Amino acid sequence: MNFGKAESPAPAAYVANSWLATASADFRISVRPRNLLYLRFEYRGIRMRCSVCGSTEFRSHDVLWEQLISDWQLAPDEVKYVNDQQGKSCNTCKANLRSIALADAIRSYFRTSLTLEEMNSETIFGEAEILEINEAGSLTTFLKSAPRYHFGAYPALDMHAIPYATGSLDLLVHSDTLEHIENPVHALQECHRVLKPSGALAFTVPIIVGRLSRNRSGLPRSYHGNASSMPDDFMVHTEFGADAWTYAMQAGFSYLELHSVGYPAGIAMLARKRAEA
Ligand SMILES: [Zn+2]
């Protein structure tokens, strides 16, 4: 095709369509079967593996709804990764990316590369006193096999007054619960208090990495779930951003690890208490 003939300039739409046709043709010419094979190899090389059960098969579904996207003022790329965080999950054990990141934080505490499922059969949990507050995604099934496992449902368990003795637990786990707590730093101080020296808290909060955290006080009420059926216990008090880690430090934790899966979709933190505390 010749667009350069001065006597018959092509209409804009015609030019645009022709450009697309040209681009498409170029693509077909440049991508040969051998290259396609190479691309497939590259993809398989970074294939995600579920650290809960070991599966490499995942499925996705969108979980966000318009009201929450509007409340949270999410940009399209943020909608995509929050949907992955909550809705991209292992075909076998159903763990989503945030649960898999949380499993990575737990594996790091126990210094093992085994999956959570393997940790159970290998008795890696040993005598560790483990408290799970609220059901941490799909990890409950695997954690509750630990010999010294304890569970506290939120909001029955008050995170502003955790009913365990100071220095009594080795590992505390909660997932996407802290954003519903009125004073997250105080709740994290409580987590720090009940841990033994060298104990750790593995947790997730939904994090929007491109902004700073904000307290929703003074803003319209927002819920994770249907506002008409959700009690105020599930109202969101804090929208966490890139400074989410500072809350743990403010609460007295000395060391912090970040674990990511499909960054920035799944991010979990492992906050450790000082050994001599
Ligand atoms: Zn799995």
Comma- or semicolon-separated keywords:
two-stranded antiparallel sheet; 277 residues; globular; 18% strand; disordered N terminus; single chain; 2 domains; binds zinc ion; six-stranded mixed β-sheet; alpha/beta; 10 strands; Rossmann fold
* Major beta sheet, strand line-up: 4-3-5-6-10-9
DSSP summary: helix tally: 9
Oligomer: single chain
Query: Element order, helices and strands?
Result: HHEHHEHHEHEEHEEEHEE
The percentage of residues in β strands lies in 15-25%
- The coarse overall form would be globular
**Biggest pleated-sheet summary:** 6 strands, mixed
TL;DR of this structure?
The chain has 277 residues and is an alpha/beta fold. The protein is built from 9 helices and 10 strands.
Description of the structure:
- By secondary structure, the protein is of the alpha/beta class.
- It folds into 2 domains: 31 residues; 215 residues, Rossmann fold, CATH 3.40.50.
- It is 33% helix and 18% strand.
- It has 9 helices and 10 strands.
- The strands form 3 sheets. A 6-stranded mixed sheet has the order 4-3-5-6-10-9, with helices on both faces. Strands 1-2 form a two-stranded antiparallel sheet.
- The radius of gyration is 24 Å and the shape is globular.
- The termini are far apart.
- The site of zinc ion (ZN) has 8 residues, from loops.
